[in-house]
Design goal:
about 130 residues; alpha+beta; Dna Ligase, domain 1; 3-stranded antiparallel beta sheet; about 35% strand
Length: about 130
């Protein structure tokens, strides 16, 4: 039984990029799909697709690499963990690498980037940071 699906997704991305793998699959959930859509909007991954297979939902992501074959995601870290939740207000939301990276935040209005949450003046749980 998987305890932390978000950490599992981030680890799968890290491992696939280290191995140079283009496509990865994992069990899907609404949170993982929303996080993958944010990564796609921000240009860190190429495509995301949710599908059903034998009654189970899966998520397939196509990772993005630059022209030299280096992964676009240089660093991806889990911030809020099951044992230590990290909640911040709109003013205290982290700026990842001085605004070049993205923090994924779970708010009362859904999962969004730190920039959108700051613009809407909404705080929430900081799920992960991506650079």
């Amino acid at each position: 039984m998987m305890m932390d699906r978000i950490a599992d997704m981030l680890t799968r991305i890290r491992n696939a990029q280290t191995a140079g793998i283009e496509k990865i699959e994992m069990p899907a959930s609404k949170i993982l799909l929303a996080m993958a859509e944010i990564l796609k909007e921000e240009g860190y991954i190429t495509a995301v697709k949710a599908y059903n297979h034998k009654g189970h939902r899966f998520l397939r992501m196509t990772l993005r690499y630059d022209d030299e074959g280096a992964p676009v995601i240089r660093e991806i870290q889990r911030v809020s963990k099951p044992g230590r939740r990290v909640y911040t207000g709109a003013e205290e939301l982290p700026r990842v690498r001085r605004g070049y990276g993205v923090a994924v935040v779970s708010t009362s209005q859904g999962i969004m980037t730190d920039k959108k949450a700051r613009a809407a003046k909404i705080g929430g749980e900081v799920l992960c940071t991506v650079f």
